[in-house]
Design a protein that fits this description.
alpha/beta; Spore Coat Polysaccharide Biosynthesis Protein SpsA, Chain A; 6 strands; single chain; Nucleotide-diphossugar_trans; 2 domains; 6 helices
Length: 247
């Protein structure tokens, strides 16, 4: 069960463990998707985490009954959950900067508001970040509607890391850029089927891009991209969160 309080303890007062990870969720106008995302977090055990949701919905989607139901579950489990409003809308980059400013844990997980995490996912990415000693690790989201759409050609550039993870420059025209189709559709589901996974439960490999579920070492993120340039953006009515579903 890890540090998650079971239902037999929900009625007892208890302290909240200091968060090792802040889960940062930017949302706008998504009730069902956000509730599913929070349900996935309710299935996670260690490490201790806090959830920070920033809502830019016109009508406050984070106050919807389905969302609030999962917030109550997380809090009963011993998780701190903060539900914030952040307006006006200045685009996703500024929204994520706001969330970073609100965080304090040593690691931050940027999680899209349409992604369900399977049990144990947070423990695996946290273990990977600690073991590899790099600035970030990601878990590619999988569109299970593509489960029957096998694309071996798009997996041809799969390349596990040999030795330590080191910085890599990826630009158009470089060999690394050709990995970009790797995270399409359900490619990683099919890759896991055909690739032995070490007993630790994860395998580090080289990427061209990754999003939707990325765990950063907060100090490294702040030094490289957290200077706050997003705060200078003007309000926009066109800003929105990702429209892609993932599971």
């Amino acid at each position: 069960m890890g540090d998650r309080r079971g239902s037999d303890e929900w009625g007892a007062a208890g302290s909240v463990a200091p968060a090792a990870v802040d889960v940062l969720i930017a949302t706008a106008g998504r009730v069902a998707e956000l509730a599913v995302t929070l349900a996935g977090l309710a299935a996670q055990d260690a490490p201790p985490f806090r959830v920070i949701v920033s809502d830019q919905s016109a009508d406050g989607a984070s106050a919807a009954p389905a969302v609030q139901a999962m917030v109550r579950v997380l809090r009963a489990q011993g998780r701190e959950v903060r539900m914030l409003r952040h307006l006006p809308r200045r685009g996703l980059a500024e929204h994520r900067q706001f969330l970073l400013d609100e965080s304090a844990a040593e690691a931050v997980l940027y999680l899209d508001d349409d992604v369900w995490l399977e049990p144990g996912a947070l423990a695996r990415v946290s273990d990977a970040l600690d073991t590899l000693g790099c600035g970030f690790v990601g878990m590619a989201v999988q569109g299970l509607s593509f489960l029957d759409d096998d694309r071996p050609a798009q997996r041809a550039r799969f390349e596990p890391w040999q030795g330590p993870v080191v910085p890599e420059r990826v630009r158009r025209g470089t060999p690394g850029f050709d990995r970009w189709p790797l995270h399409n559709a359900a490619n990683l589901v099919h890759l896991a089927r055909d690739t032995p996974i070490p007993p630790r439960g994860w395998l580090a490999y080289k990427v061209a891009w990754i999003g939707a579920c990325v765990l950063y070492r907060r100090a490294a993120l702040w030094m490289s991209a957290g200077s706050g340039s997003g705060r200078r953006l003007h309000p926009t009515t066109r800003a929105r969160t990702s429209s892609r579903s993932g599971a």
